[in-house]
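[[Local backbone shapes]]
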Amino acid sequence: MDDTERVVIKRWLAAVPEPLRRAGYVLLVLGLGIPLLLRVMGFEAIPATAALLRGSLGSGYAITSATLVRATPLILTGLSVAIAFRGGVFNIGAEGQLLAGAAAATALSLLPGLSHSRWNPLVALVIGATAGGFWAGIAALLRVRFRVLEVISTILLNFVALYLVGYLVRGPLQEPLHIYPQSSTIDSAARLPRILPASRLHAGFLVAIVVAIAAWWIVRHTAAGFRLRAIGANPDAARVAGEIDVARTGTHAFIVSGAIAGLAGAIEVTGVTFALYENISPGYGYTGIAVALLARLDAAGVVASGLLFGALEAGASAMQRDAGVPAVVVSIVEAVIILGLIVAWPLQSGVGSASRASEATSTPAER
């Protein structure tokens, strides 16, 4: 390939919109990474990949009842992490905030006065979001008052929330027979309505999409969003030149982040499990970090990356059932996606500058 061909390729790549370039990199990593990983680990690549696709995208039921249901908490936890990281707050506690929201929503939904009310699902979502915001507020208080790093406090609060749920399902909220470590099943009136009658897809998915759209608009088009982006980019400049209260803005971002994660927990109880138990979250809060990073902290991108990770996790069980591949292999695939894009992003960002540089140094005839 000569220099002229390289210039043409660079110009063509630079003309492709960044979201499409990013999607292309993701598809490339997936298309090459999944079969290669499966082959290296000693599995039949083609049957395993086919099983993963069937389990996630192979039918309307697989899409609505598996992929979209799995993607709902991932979109919300991804938004939670993205908003916090945008504001320079490293909230690693979406898992604990999700559990706090799930516990609060369950406790409210089991109250005798509300268990049969048609307003129960809405109140449960509000209480779950409030509980998640409160749980994040503990770390925010430690950050502002005692200068405790939020990375440490939120990780530790994850374990506190996990053991708190364990106590609740073996104590105050345990089912009446005291046989299983879980709460009683919430009443049908307390559950989120189904979007499609023949699937498991519930109204929580629509809530997640609405929250994502609202978050994108607020971050991009409001003064609050500008303050958030300013302190995330350079807190010193935001404080000195922009006269922004960095501590206050960061605290607000922290609490809103926790509220969104708590909302995810409430939706999981009222839309999927209908009861609280210890392993109600298979790590949605931690996967949300990968979802947010893959989307480069963009709220609109979080929806796409949440759907991608939801499809991977939905296809994992089918891959294990039909091809004998352990479901944990999907976690390795997710890690490879992130690492592959970390390598690709500098190359991607260099396409535009390289193209401009080649145009500057090329002759009129080459142009």
Q: What stands out?
A: Residues 72-305 form one domain.
